[in-house]
Amino acid sequence: MSTDAMFNLEHGVKDKSKSKAAMPVVAQLQEMQEDRWKEDYMSNKLLRKMFRDKKKQIKKLKEKDQALLQKSSLDIELAPENADDVRVAGLLNCRRNAA
User: Fold this and answer.
1) Alpha carbon separation from 37 to 27, 29, 43, 50 (Å, rounded)
2) For residue 97, which of 68, 87, 89, 71 has the smallest C-alpha distance?
3) pTM over cut 0.70
4) How many other CB atoms sit within 10 Å of the CB of residue 11?
5) pLDDT tens readout for residues 3-31
6) What residue ranges in the chain does DSSP mark as E strands?
């Protein structure tokens, strides 16, 4: 069938008219897909950056804790530091300096 010249002519015209009618829809779909891909890429990029930063922060805290444990020759697991701990330690330090 594809070798028949009349068949090719008839279907070629129909195909061309269908492609012209579908062009705006195809262009719109491509644009939507590109926008979606850009949004996915940017959100993924931001999440990866957040995870890397968090990982670096955790590594620094672990190194700080290890240095403190090594300095004091302790073999215990340290709890995370909070604002009250810092305040109480400061008060104890001031009290020790005053005595």
Assistant:
1) 15, 12, 10, 20
2) 89
3) no
4) 13
5) 777 777 777 777 777 778 888 888 888 88
6) none
